[in-house]
Structure formats: structure tokens, C-alpha cells
Amino acid sequence: MNRTARLSFLTALMLGAQSLFAAVSLTDARQLIAAGDYQSAIEALKGYAAKEPRNATIQLLLGDCYKALGNDADAINEYTKAIKNGSNDARLGLIEIAVREYRVDDADEQLEAYRKGLKKGRKTQPDESDEATAMLERTRNMLNRVEKIVVFDSINVPADDFFTYYRLSPESGSLNSPSVLPGGFKAAMPTVVYEPESRTEMMWAMPDDDNNFALVNSVALYGDEWDTPEHVGDHLGEGGDANYPFLMPDGITLYYANDGENSLGGYDIFITRRDNNGFLQPQNLGMPYNSPYNDYMLAIDETTGAGWWASDRNHIDNMVTIYMFIPADMRVNVDVDSPDLIDRARLSSIKSTWEPGADYSQLKNSIANISRSAHNLKSQCRFTLPDGRIITRIEQLTNSDARLAMRHYLDLEESIRCNNERLASLRTAWASGDRSVQTEILQLEKQAIEDAVTLRMSANEVIEAELQ
Prior knowledge:
Elements: H1 3-34, H2 38-51, H3 56-68, H4 72-84, H5 90-100, H6 104-118, H7 130-143, E1 150-158, E2 174-176, E3 193-195, E4 201-207, E5 213-219, E6 230-231, E7 242-247, E8 253-258, E9 268-275, E10 278-279, E11 283-284, E12 295-301, E13 306-311, E14 319-326, H8 341-346, H9 361-373, E15 383-384, E16 390-391, H10 400-431, H11 438-467
Helix pairs in contact: 1-2, 2-3, 3-4, 4-5, 5-6, 5-7, 6-7, 10-11
């Protein structure tokens, strides 16, 4: 083989190896996307996008990754390039982003362009826009009935235990982790267990036979026994998961979340009512409660006159935003021609929902007083003893030293909760660029580690005193 032929052979071999490497890497990138590791997939795709700037497939995949991470600006950029390079499917990504940004007119234009693109070429392409079309219609309908509510406060808290930051009066019941369930009871992960003030019923989400989350309840029997959990309505999931129940004290009105066919995206908050035949067909609560992201765990405290719900619409890593609002006796919607309709729908600013000159400090104080005095109320705690007893009131402890230790335990638990709230607030400030909070964050993080040890020791003191 002469030198020229040998070089040609080596060049062909190298090109073949590069092609094989590219194919394997794209396969790996798709696997990363399927596994939800979008950031790693982006890093894998960036190099190939630089080498192949007209590869619409790579640009489409990058757009999908950025969209999944909530980075809409970069997603739009990649989708736009993919469309220029011949990808019609990239318009579906632009439609989804436009819808979740409430730009329904832009979504309409992209949908029309997408359908025109299907007709080009020698063979008819399958129409994959059904889901996008349904989402667009749901959004358009909800924008026609945005409720006019007052959101008087909001806080950003860790997503894992967000429900512990709700401040509900005893009359409204309690929100608990699945750890309160009797042994052998299954629970969805995650879920929240609702109990009324009487502690005679529990309602939560549990996987069904199809591995969907379904709402179930159990009622207290004699002693510490609980009845077998029963489904409260298979239709409540609407083809998806039903979760995060809150039953009003009337025992009739149920708020919960589902991500089924009538959801904007992720979990939406629904309302249903119970009659003699069970719970009726649920209704989506609409905007601003719901968004194209996850919105859930709506609870209303009739004692304080405050409502609560959680949302991840603000895209803060491992955090959710809890909104506090004033429930109205009668629904009043924002005028569809109002210039602030979109801002009201997406809650761009909670201050814009306030009434002129209104002062909500008294309402905030009443909620804070619930927090400070919770352990002095008749439904004080949920503390499990090794002998199987579940303590919900200090008076249930038979030993005076145990009752004293329990008061100390609850005081410590409340102090830890306040510190966690402060730490969550500081972390939000840090994420927004405020570096002045660094020292306090480090101090509170160190304190959190010490508090966890102290709380365990305090719990042991309660147990030892009661069982001695």
C-alpha cells in the first residue's frame, strides 16, 4: 500500500471511529435524558452541537433539556435554531414554553406553523400536538376565570417538609408525615397525612393496583386500632395521581391535588364535596392557585381566616413557595380585559393583590400566635412511645416528669422550626445574590446539626421518664 493510499485508509478509519463515538455519545445523552439527568446530557450534547451547528436533532435535544430544567431562555434559543435547521417538532417545545408563560397568542402561532409543517414533504407526518393543544385550551379557559384573591404573604421553604411550615389552628386539624400511620399501612412517597381535630380519621395518598396515587382514609377504632384504609374516590385522580388532601371541618369539602387530564401541568389543586354517595366530580380551582407547574396542599383555617397552598412555580432548587391568602365567601374573577390579568394569574407580585391601604399585620400576628402557643393547646403533638401509645396531648402522659420533659421537647421543636424558617429565608436571599447572609447561614447550619442531636436527647428524656 503506497503512502497516499495508507493515509486515505487511516483517514477513513478515524472518521469511522469519530462517527461511532458520536453515535454512542448521542445514545448516552438520550439515556441521560430518560433518567432525568438533564445537566449531564447538556454537557454531553454541547460538544457535538459545536461540531455540528446545523444538526437539528442535537439542538432539539438541548432544547428539551433546558426546558426540563426551567431554563426557558436557552430552550427557546435551541428550539429556534432547530426550526431553522428543519425540525418541525421543535415548535412543540416552543408551544409548551409559551403556554406556561401564559403567551397563548404566541402558542397559537406556533401551533398553526407546526401543522403547516406536517403537510410539507412527500409523506404525511403524524400530528403530535394533541397534548400541546389540550394544554393550550386549558390555559386559555383558565385565563378567562382568574380569581381575584389577596395573597398577603409568602415564604420559600425546603420541599421535603414544607407542610411543617403551615400554621393551622387545632380546629382545622393537622398535617403530618406518613410516620404517624399505623404499622403496615402503605403510603405514597411523598404524601401528607391529614387528621381532623378529633384525631378520629386520617386521610392520605396510597399507591393503588396500577401504582397510581389514590386518596384513602382510615377511621379510629377502639383503643389504638385503626380500620383498614379505604379509597375515598377512584375518580379523583382523573387518570393521574391524587394526593395532598385537606378536609374542611364540615367533613364535606375536600381540597386535594391531582396531575390528571384536567391539570395545567404537574399537580393542580381541585375541590370536591361529599354527599351520601361519596365525593362528587372534582373541579379545578383555577388560577392563580394553579400554574403549569406543581401546585398542591391547599388548606383553609377558618379560625384565623387564612388559607395556604404550596407551589414550585418559582424554580428554586429543592424549595417550594408557600402562599398565604384570604379565602373569599364568594368567588370574584379578574376582568378578562384587565391589563394585570396575566400578572394576577401567575402571581408576579403578591403586593399587587393587596387592597389599597390595607394592613395585614393583625392577620400575620394571629398566625404567629398559633405557632408560639401550639404546645399549650389541647391538640399539642404526635409523639410515639415504644410501648405503642401515641401521645397527642401532654395530659396523656402519666408521669409528671415526663409531662415536664414533653413541654421542654415541644419548646425545642418549635425553636428548631423557627430556625429552619430563618435558614430557608437566608438561603433564598443568598440565591438572589445577597452575600451578606453567609455568616448567619453557616451559624444556623451548625446550629441545625446540634439541635438535631439535642432534640433526640430530649425525646429520650420523655420516653425514659414515662416508662420508668
